[in-house]
Structures are given as C-alpha cells and as structure tokens.
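Hi V.,

You were right to ask for the full record rather than a summary. Here it is.
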Amino acid sequence: MRFSILASSLLLIAISLDAAEAVAQTPPADVDAQLSRLAEKRKLQAELQKETADLVAQIQTQLLNFQKRLGELNGPPLPMPPLPPPNDPLKAKIAEAFKADAGDLASKKLDAAKLAGTYSAAVEKNLALIPELKTAGDLIERVRSIDPSLGTDRLTNVRTLIAAELAAILKSHSTPLTDELRNAVAALFARFEAALDDVSK
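Predicted structure:
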C-alpha cells in the first residue's frame, strides 16, 4: 500500500515537472506580437533616417545654389587693400600723438584698441571700395557709424592726426570718390589700423 502511494506521488511529480518544462520552453503568445512590433518600428526608424538624410542633402544643395546665385548677383568680391609698408612712418606719428594725448595709459590703450577696431572693420568690409558711397563725406560718415561709442574728447591728438591724413587725400567732404582715391583711402585705413594696434598694446 505504501509503495503504491509513493509510486503515485512520484508519477504526479514527474507529470508536473514535464508540464512546467513545456511551459518554460513555449514563449507567451504576446511575445511574438511584441517582437513583430519591434521589427516594424526598427523598419520605420531606418526609413525615417534615410528620409532625414535625403532631406538634409536637399537643403544643403539648395543653400549652395542660393549662395552661388547671390554671389553672381553681387559680382566678384572686392579686392583687399595692400598691407601697410614695413617701418611705416605713420606709426611713429600716431605713437607721438598718442603719447601727447591726455588720460591714463590704460584708458588711452583701450581707446586706441576701439579706434583700431573701427578701422579694422573698415578694412574688412572694404568700405572705401563700396560703389554706393559716392563722396568722401559718405565714406567718413560710414566709418564713424561703425563704433560711435568713442567720444570726441578721447584721443584728440590721434584723431586730429588721422583727420589730417585723410584730408590730405580727400580734400573735402564733397570730393567724389574716384577709383584712385578709393584705393588710396583703403590703404590708409589699413595703415591706421596697424598703427593704432601698436599703441594699444
């Protein structure tokens, strides 16, 4: 009797283990569905990445075409003015005027750096060669508009010297800007920048 009960128990345990193993080996029904959804999402993601790359390429091509057309409308780039000559005598003149100007050295150097920045921008933007600026007065006012923060009471000796150098070429505000004058003033702007940069250090 005891043997029969033990045998029955062992048989039930074996059946239970077989059933558990079968369940463990068979994935739940919803796993297949989730795997299918994952595969679909990966497919959509790949398609989206391709569409994005194609769109970026189209935008880049359109931008390049626009820049090309804009360059054709604006004409060829304006030539840069020549570099200041080595040992330019203007540097010594500006250094002397800078030394004579009132104010503490640190403040004067800061003002000289601002003024150098103004003429640096004038050189970089080729203001002297812009056709829309017809007269000497047009050009001078455009240069002054770059940075009006430097008051007229600062670096007065330096600014008086710069004005005299410009007047020697341009004569008056009403002087028409010929190609020769434009080139001469463009070169002078570059010399101003270099000389002012020296005294600002």
